[in-house]
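[recover] target loaded
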């Protein structure tokens, strides 16, 4: 069940509760080792007390109304608390499958897909499929989306492995052995940043947004939003002032982004691939992950570390 707008501010407050608790624990260290140990013990005791009460409440609620399990799992705050106490009504395989379903529309916009092969212990094994119509760097956006979704839904997972398809990959296939490798190499400062203003873009509109010190270009085609770094793949200049253009004879939602400086055209729906025929093969924009997380539209901006 989606959150009502008046609940979003409260949700954002509780999503950062863990960070505030950790900050208070760190501050208690100024009182010495004994004070810090007692503060940690206090937090553990309170958490265990509420966990025990929550377990009893879950048992009573689901005994009377088993259908509440899906409602609890769909609420981000409740689901996170249940995960902390090991009380989530869905097993890890179901949660991973649901997480992959949530990002499949995004993967599809990049010509990709992902399949869950198995969950063994604390390891998830995935297999990627589909083609990507730009250079392999766009796979980084897929890696970030899948990694984030799986770890949020199943924090007990310690590793995510990608299994290569048995059949030989086609030239445009996303290289399976490179998927998730760059995510593991991301610096510790990597993170997702809320960008609720992006949702206000009107169909056909292009806008620039400052995110964590970087400029991101976002645009809307129908109900879909796409985001790219503010750098033309052809001339290397800023895309400030770029506009969407409908190609002659194409559908209304088959628009391309035109660089205002070199006039190169890029397919925003398919990972920013350049569609000009003048030797532009491999030229592309750099996609940026743009997903709804915990009811808030967010962008992941991170420096890609070469593998």
């Amino acid at each position: 069940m989606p959150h009502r707008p008046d609940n979003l501010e409260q949700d954002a407050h509780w999503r950062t509760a863990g960070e505030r608790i950790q900050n208070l624990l760190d501050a208690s260290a100024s009182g010495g080792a004994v004070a810090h140990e007692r503060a940690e013990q206090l937090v553990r005791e309170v958490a265990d007390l509420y966990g025990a009460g929550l377990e009893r409440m879950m048992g009573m609620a689901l005994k009377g109304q088993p259908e509440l399990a899906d409602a609890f799992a769909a609420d981000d705050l409740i689901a996170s608390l249940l995960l902390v106490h090991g009380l989530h009504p869905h097993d890890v395989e179901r949660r991973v499958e649901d997480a992959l379903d949530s990002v499949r529309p995004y993967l599809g916009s990049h010509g990709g897909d992902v399949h869950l092969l198995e969950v063994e212990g604390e390891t998830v094994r995935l297999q990627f499929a589909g083609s990507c119509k730009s250079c392999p760097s766009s796979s980084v956006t897929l890696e970030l989306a899948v990694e984030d979704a799986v770890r949020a839904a199943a924090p007990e997972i310690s590793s995510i492995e990608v299994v290569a398809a048995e059949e030989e990959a086609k030239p445009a296939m996303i290289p399976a052995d490179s998927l998730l490798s760059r995510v593991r190499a991301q610096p510790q400062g990597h993170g997702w940043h809320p960008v609720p203003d992006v949702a206000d873009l009107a169909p056909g509109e292009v806008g620039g947004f400052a995110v964590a010190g970087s400029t991101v270009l976002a645009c809307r085609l129908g109900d879909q939003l796409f985001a790219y770094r503010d750098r033309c793949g052809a001339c290397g200049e800023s895309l400030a002032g770029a506009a969407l253009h409908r190609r002659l004879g194409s559908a209304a939602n088959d628009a391309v982004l035109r660089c205002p400086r070199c006039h190169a055209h890029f397919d925003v729906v398919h990972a920013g691939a350049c569609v000009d025929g003048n030797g532009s093969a491999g030229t592309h924009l750099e996609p940026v992950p743009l997903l709804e997380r915990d009811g808030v539209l967010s962008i992941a901006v991170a420096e890609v570390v070469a593998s």
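[recover] notes: Residues 33-64 form the longest helix (32 residues).
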